[in-house]
Structure formats: structure tokens, C-alpha cells
Amino acid sequence: MPSTIPHLLQRLRGGQHASSPRLTWYGPDGERIELSGRVLENWVAKTSNFLTEELDAEIGTRVRIALPAHWKSAVIALAAWQVGAVVVDDPGIPVDVTFVGPDFAADDAAPSGGALVAVALGALEMGYPGQLPAGAYDYAAAVRQFADSYEPFDAPAEDDAAYESGSESFSQAELSSGFAAPAAAGARVLVAAREGLRASLSRLLGAWAADGSAVLVHAQTEEAEDGRALERIRQTEKVTGA
């Protein structure tokens, strides 16, 4: 089992299944996006470079992901952990960077003292839809400008903090040993986005740590046609784990 997120990403990029699906996303408008291990790691590398080069993120930087469970949310979390940042899941804890989605009103107050990054969630959106919040970075427009590979100046250690909420905290090593939900070796796991970001990240990490893959399904897709769509997804994607 990988001891840190950088070790996990190395396996996704260079393992024997690097070209196989590692994350499949079913969105609310019938969209289906499939990311192989190599493509997933590529997105994480670009986001890691964005965090370090544009936002000066480093070990200990606090990042809040105020987004629904989504493939981009997973990418951002992996990137934050790769650069040694701490993902904070508590609005009462001050942070250095906050990622927000399209439901964040342009005139809402930005997080005090921190950078704001606005994330477009549509499959084909090349930039943030509508008015960009004042002072915010446009993730979709910016991230493509960064390199496809990430070379850390200072890689996180196993005992570096990685996740913090009001009730729990995990180190880099504990992301795999405590935060991640256990999965059978090589399992293809179905993850319901309606469970929330924390639960979804736990399920995703568990699948990848077990050399498996995951199918992440948006709540609207999951509920479509009285649940029949979800059963079709299970069969089509050959899901082996609940």
C-alpha cells in the first residue's frame, strides 16, 4: 500500500495499468469522462504546478475544497496532498487557498487573507461560467498552462499533516491507512457523489490504494429514472464493489 500520495501517484502514472481507467465520472447532463491512471496523474501534476507556482503552496499550506464530489475535486485534493498541503474540511479553520464552484456568487466575500480559485465543473467549459468572483483565479483557464509533470522541491513526509476537520485529522501516511475506505484488491468501486466530498475522497483513495478503479456518479444521474440508470452503470462499468 502506498505510504504517501506522491507514492500513490507514481503507481497511477507508471504502473502496469497506467493506461487503464482509474476514474470514470458520470455527470448530471449525461456526460461520461474516463481518466486513465496516466491522464489522472497528468491533471494532478498540472494542478500541483498551479498550486506551487501561482499560489506559492508548500508543505503545511491550508486548502479548503468547497466543491461537490466531482472528478475535478478529486484532482484538486490529490494535488494539494502531493505538494504537502493540508486539506481543511471545517469552515471555522482559517485557510490559505479556497476552491469554489459555480454556485459561489460573484459578490460573495472572499475568504479572509486567502486566495480564491473558481472552478468550472462542466465537461466542456474552458473557463469559469458567468462573472468571475473579484480577485479569483480561473482554474479551468489557468491550469492548462502548467506542465504535465511535477517535480517537488520538498516532497511531503509520511508524518506531515494532510487532512483536518473539526473532529479528525490525518497525516500523509494515514490517508492510506486510516482515511481511505478499504477496498478489495483490483476492485472497481462505485462511489455516490451525494455522500459528500469527504466520503467520496475516502472511497476513491481506497480503490486506488488497492490498485483498483472507481466510478463516481453525480446525484442527479444516480436518481434518474427511479434508479434504473444506476443499475445500468453498474453493469456497463463492471462494478465489483459497492
TrEMBL record:
Q: Which InterPro entries match?
A: ANL_N_sf (IPR042099), Rv3268 (IPR017523)
Which branch of life, at top level? Bacteria
User: By what name is this protein known?
Assistant: TIGR03089 family protein
